[in-house]
Amino acid sequence: MRTNIKMSNFKLLAIVAFLGLFLQSCSSDDDSNSLNAPIITDFEYGEGGDHSTEQYVYKGSDIHLEAKINAEATVKSISISIHAHDLEIGEDEVDWDFEKVFTDEKYLAINPTFHEHVDVPANIPAGEYHIELVVTDEEGNSTEIEGHIDVKDPITLGEVSIDESVARGTDFHAEFMINAVNGIHNITVDIHAHGLTLKDGEVEWDFEKEYLEKYHEKTEAEFHEHIDVPATAPAGEYHMVFTVEDEDGNTKKYDTHIDVTE
To answer: Cα separations (Å) of 172 from 124, 161, 193, 258, 261?
Structure first.
């Protein structure tokens, strides 16, 4: 009777040992068959016009994005996210968040090269934007890489010097530097007032002029002009808008006021 019990215990231990070895073998097989997550290298981005790798871009242009992907399993999707934090939104500007998932056939492969261009709106705030690239394979593995790009204004104005007041019948001067990467198309000045009461001999004064000849197509120029104020203009506060337009249709405005005195 004791011999039978010992044999039963021996068989039980043998079965447990066999199951342990079997499970360990299966686990080893599973480990050996698992594929590593994709690896992203040579991630570059910059202005799209010349495939620049300098990490900035101008509003109204596009971003060139490129990366090499080493994937043991077939790529399932590639996603791009671009956004900013706490940028001040100016007049006529909008917040910009870009997200897109790419599932083009050319990317659903092993070791694809990612290459895309993303349009940058002309009416977004300038500043630093965060870029995130995520690659996911058919096994569910994913890898992400991130960076930052500086979005710049295509037109910038230097320090503006404009007289704060002017006596009617004389002139005032306006002066500032302009940098326009796409070249200056024109500069317009609009001066007007609202609600001024006309006295005897006075005539309402609205000034609009396009300045072109000295500035057209220049990427850097100094705007320096003298503007005559008619002797018949009513005294009071006038609103002025200086608008610089580049060859791509982008604009930059500067608003100010001037007092016309008697």
So the answer is: 34, 11, 16, 10, 12
In 3-state terms the chain splits into helix, strand, coil percentages (rounded to 5) of: 15, 50, 40
Supply angle C-alpha 101, 105, 109, rounded to 5: 95
**What distance in Å separates the CA atoms of residue 229 and residue 164, rounded to the nearest whole number?**
13
Is 156 strand, coil or helix?
strand
CB atoms under 10 Å from CB of 24, counted, come to: 10
Mean pLDDT across 136-150: 97
The terminus-to-terminus CA distance of the chain in angstroms comes to: 129
| Alpha carbons 166 and 236: distance in angstroms, whole number | 10
Per-residue pLDDT tens for 4-43? 544 455 454 445 445 554 445 444 444 445 899 999 999 9
- What does the alpha-carbon distance between residue 243 and residue 79 come to, in Å, rounded to a whole number? 38
Interacting residues of 165 by C-beta distance below 8 A, sequence separation 6+: 172, 258, 259, 260, 261
Q: Coil, helix or strand for 164?
A: coil
Q: Which two tokens stand for residue 207?
A: 């000034």
Q: What is the pTM of this model?
A: 0.76
Instruction: Please give the DSSP secondary-structure letter assigned to residue 262.
Output: -
Burial of 6 (0-12, 13-18, 19+ CB in 10 A): exposed
- What's the pLDDT tens digit per position in 214-243? 999 999 999 999 999 999 999 999 999 999
